[in-house]
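Extended Data, panel c. Modelled sequence:
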Amino acid sequence: MKCLFTYKWVKLPRAHIPAGKGLMGSFLRLASRAAFRPGKARYCGYTNDVNTGSWVGGIVGLKSILGVKDRKQALNVMERLVEMGFITCSLNTQTKKLTYTINDWIMECSGDTCPTGAIYTTEGYGFLCIPRDVTERLVRQGYRFGESDAWLDLWCHTVWGDRYNAFSRLAPTIQIMRGKPILTLESLGARWGWEKTKVWRFLKKYADTFSLYKLPGSYGCLIFNHLYPADVGPVEAPTDAVIMRVLNEIRFMGQKTHYSSSDHERINLYTLRFSNRIELGNLNDGCPSQSHPAVDRVAVFTPYNTRAYSSLPKSTNDCAGSIYRERRIQDLSPPRPRQCAWP
């Protein structure tokens, strides 16, 4: 499935949940163990009614899901997630029964009610449906991102096949904002509360998922998602030659368009404006494109609109300062006042 900006959620395989530190890592582990359909489940000899997007159990099971050994640490994580609005949680102090529910659960990814079937998925099997703006709460509250938070932020902002981002038609591409298809490490650092060097080290650490490509000059960079579940199967990152051909296409179309802004802002505007005019099928097959026809592969002729002006003096003498100052021109027109500006 192509996940465009028109979709409000993205798919995340349960086998690819990040293991780094961060609040979103705990949230994903809780969501991966929540019921994908309503039904009944047994826990420690008790049968419980479970709603879609919920989990019912005890503290021991919660610690196992979160991957922590301390009860207090597990409850602190749950309290923080409740405060930020990601989940709702309740604990019965008498029976020690704990129930949590994932807020904003994507019902399109839920199953039908089954009285006798399983309601929990096998660990590491299937995929989660995550709201695209799930990490925006962290940004609005000024939360300093951890590794799992940054990982999920990139995943949720992956674009595949967007007509206004030509690079996303090569491979799934990270795009944080609608009007800015090209990123900078500085903008990511400001978003996550990191320094630029830490962003670079993070991308190098998770290079098996996200590949970084530096564009020429001060244009910025592109980040491709290798593991994104595209409809054509796994998609490898494009080669440098293919990326540069797309970039040159965009620059060629925008060479007569002038914006008084930085190189990064200008290439973002060009990409947004001209992406839907690029024939990426031709680029991938090595065939000529619309902007670079096969009949003119060496140099592209630019059809400038020029005009030829002919100066026909209307006075008996040329204008003052002319190189023809001493020349007298025969004028057969009716007499008129001497002047230097032609009507």
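The longest strand covers residues 9-13. This feature is highlighted in the accompanying rendering.
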